[in-house]
Design brief:
Keywords: Membrane, Transmembrane, Transmembrane helix. This is DUF805 domain-containing protein. The structure is a single chain. By secondary structure, this protein is mainly α. It has a domain of about 40 residues. The protein is about 65% helix and about 0% strand. The protein is built from three helices and no strands. The protein starts with 7 loop residues before the first helix and ends with a helix. About 5% of the residues are buried.
Length: about 80
């Protein structure tokens, strides 16, 4: 059915390359945000998992950041 389609095989490789680029563009800022707030940077990888990414954003937005606890002198 797809013998006449010249994009049949290249579309698949291009799709995965595009998904890798998007993942890098999203994970790097999420990694840095987690580090700056005082959480481990690897938590930024969670931004790639549907639903978990929303939980991560709410967690970072509404939790007390470890970096603020260290700088404010509060315990």
């Amino acid at each position: 059915m797809m013998e006449g389609n010249m994009f049949g095989n290249t579309m698949w490789a291009g799709h995965w390359l595009w998904m890798l680029v998007i993942a890098i563009v999203v994970v790097i800022p999420a990694w840095r945000i987690c580090q700056r707030t005082g959480y481990p940077g690897w938590m930024g990888i969670l931004i790639l998992i549907p639903i978990v990414n929303l939980v991560l954003l709410y967690f970072i937005a509404f939790s007390d950041w470890p970096s603020n606890r260290n700088n404010d002198g509060r315990s």
